[in-house]
Amino acid sequence: PGDGYEAWLQYRRTDQGTKLKQYAPYCHIAAVIQDEVMRTAVNELSQGLEAITGHLVDVAETLGESSGILLGIFGASQAIDEAIHADVAGSVRTEGYAIQFDGRTEQIAIGAADSAGLLYGVFHLLRIMAAGGDVKSLNRVENPVNSLRMINQWDNMDGSVERGYAGSSIFYHDNRVAKEYQRIQDYARLLASCGINAIAINNVNVHRVESRLLTDFLPDVTKLAAIFRQYAIKLYLSINYASPMELGGLATADPQNPSVREWWREAAAKVYEAIPDFGGFLVKADSEHRPGPFTYGRDHADGANMLAEAVKPYGGVVIWRCFVYNCKQDWRDRSTDRARAAYDHFRPLDGRFLDNVILQIKNGPIDFQVREPVSPLIGAMPHTNQMIEFQIAQEYTGQQRHVCYLVPQWKEVLDFDTYLQEEGTPVKRIVDGTVHGNPCNGFAAVSNIGSDANWTGHLLAQANLFGYGRLAWNPELSAEEIAKEWIRLTFGSREPLFQTIYDILMNSWEIYESYTTPLGVGFMVNPDHHYGPNVEGYEYSPWGTYHYADNHGVGVDRTTATGTGYTSQYADANKQRYESLATCPDELLLFFHHVPYTHKLHSGKTVIQHIYDTHFEGAERAGQLLAVWERMREQLDEQAYRQVADRLEEQAEHAKEWRDRINTYFYRRSGIPDEQGRTIY
Ligand code: GCW
């Protein structure tokens, strides 16, 4: 794939320099362009078809008797109403589409209820064609399962990206909005092509300059909104809760203060005047030193509702993050458990939030670790809109220097049965709104892109961005299908390359987990930047992320019987499962229990032997990734080969560092030798 810039939209098959003539009959498009998103859809389709087939494409208002592709909005296009049966059309919802092939006319019809649906339908068709797939059997309706499918940029205006591992920001530099509009548009296109429909363009940690995106920089923001609008993506801003003071010169940011409320109403009015379809505000408040309502003796509902009222007249929403915990904890204090914090803070507020507030909840109770249980807050507030937050950026999963395909992890989270309404209440059904029937819901995730030519630093990390979008659209897709789709579009389907990349992706999370933190205990990383092993890096810090390893054992007792009581935040079936050593799954053992090194896992191994074995095996498997990749050299474009090879080389070395640090630490603590007598220092 060359430098990787076109990602999964290359539309040229790397495995057969030849164009795909089989699709030439479809190089006629009929559409009556009604708005800019529809224009985008038509442009994407004609450019895509030209790239795929090598034929010129013509666009007209009708197809007549010719074969080709018909695009139209139901009720507005007679041709589409004739091509797609009313019953089928009736099952297409907002942003959905029907796509079908008519064998008699040799026409492909894409019909939708709105132009966004057409755009998604076009990308669907292009995905099939670019992979050389069969269009003659097309006959389906697709509706997005989640209404909000959002990306959070953690970009700062100085050009840095918080937890960014792929260069600098494409949105800002030198405390200004960057004027690289083409790049931003190319990003919008990538996002829309996998189903994303919302973006917050600045870091949730909003500092002084970024606060002014709401005011001084509004003309620039308006320009960015216009770029994303073409791709049916709504723009949101992260706001600084203390803006009425920092920007407005008020003496307080108290949500009950009338001048504060007025300040926000005016601020919202100005934003909506400039950007009538503005999405709303994303807020990190009273978290990690950010200001919030606590200062004034108010709670999160007071704070969120004040903002919600300000955007309500325009149909805007407030997305309020639940990543709230005490980051100045005393490590000596064994009664405070960071894992409990989100639930303890928010659950009592259920029913108090306005209906245009959405709580954004991280998938796990701690912080995007390689392994965590599912946050018990998800689904626990039936009268409140909720959305789930994932992190595509690999902060704790190798920082895009190690390969770690995260879709399998996300799938586990989405499929997790909360038992909140008896058996069969998985996270995905809560997040999509079906369980509680709440109006606003969906997915958010921290982006993994930056100014690097290939967007994500590690070329294989593109699969995570793509996979996130596809999963937000339809959480039923499997990690395997998504991986295959991405590989086909990015590298083609030639063997053995295809299978090799597939195996690398599908094994990568397990490999990464095996040489890093064991059995769900988390952290053990270097403070601040979070890259690389440091077993006690956070052990005596105020951040609440401890493992309590001593000479006898390791792990956090979060049971209700003898520990922090965190297990009682789950519905009974899950509480029982985690509470008891007999049923707690091995991979989460140390998250929930403090056990001796000699404790036997369900696997039959002792904890200490498990640590040794996984670390030796994990580092070895990391080394093999490089070896298999090297064998693919002939089949790959040199640039793409190099890029991944360099990272795999670093991973292989760094995995050894992890192995030796972790093994040595636990060997010195426990004094128990490895059964196999391998080298531990
Ligand atoms: O994962 C942690 C990160 C912080 C981040 C915070 C959050 C944006 O280390 O860099 O801040 O989470 O999610 O707010």
From TrEMBL:
Homodimer. It comes from the Bacteria. Residues 131-455 form the Glycosyl hydrolase family 67 catalytic domain. This is Xylan alpha-1,2-glucuronidase. Residues 456-678 form the Glycosyl hydrolase family 67 C-terminal domain. Pfam families: Glyco_hydro_67C (PF07477), Glyco_hydro_67M (PF07488), Glyco_hydro_67N (PF03648). The keyword Hydrolase applies. It is an enzyme of class 3 (hydrolase). It catalyses: Hydrolysis of (1->2)-alpha-D-(4-O-methyl)glucuronosyl links in the main chain of hardwood xylans. Residues 7-125 form the Alpha glucuronidase N-terminal domain. InterPro entries: A-glucoronidase_C_sf, GH, Glyco_hydro_67_aGlcAse, Glyco_hydro_67_aGlcAse_N, Glyco_hydro_67_C, Glyco_hydro_67_cat, Hex-like_dom2. The lineage of its organism: Bacteria, Bacillati, Bacillota, Bacilli, Bacillales. Belongs to the glycosyl hydrolase 67 family. Keywords: Carbohydrate metabolism, Glycosidase, Hydrolase, Polysaccharide degradation, Xylan degradation.
